[in-house]
Amino acid sequence: xxxxxxxxxxxxxxxxxxxxxxxxxxxxxxxxxxxxxxxxxxxxxxxxxxxxxxxxxxxxxxxxxxxxxxxxxxxxxxxxxxxxxxxxxxxxxxxxxxxxxxxxxxxxxxxxxxxxxxxxxxxxxxxxxxxxxxxxxxxxxxxxxxxxxxxxxxx
Length: 155
Description:
Blueprint: H1 26-32, H2 42-50, H3 61-82, E1 89-99, E2 106-119, E3 124-127, E4 136-138, E5 142-153
Antiparallel strand pairs: 1-2, 1-5, 2-3, 3-4
């Protein structure tokens, strides 16, 4: 067994302070022991490469015809709203393709919002709520469109 009694006098001594080297502040001391990343941004690049995207799906002729019919119905409801026959804006659930900013492909997003108008110049639907105010969903990006018959959103 080791005899520690000969070190008892050192147990209660204060920490020695150097005259040449002042003590390091805690922030700098902690930085000394933080993880070291030799390649800055490498982890982010690996995550970005691993992130999956979907390819844009092309509609067949039947799906295009069904979407055109939905758009005609939506336009008729918006016209009725303008003429005072409807009291509130039609609400739709849209599934559309959102292109990815950084790599090929994108993602499909589904949301519900009230329709403000159909913009024929931009070839899109201007939404009123549920997304960013005035967001335009391009007709070429729409995969599916469902019109809700319960009008509960006012313009």
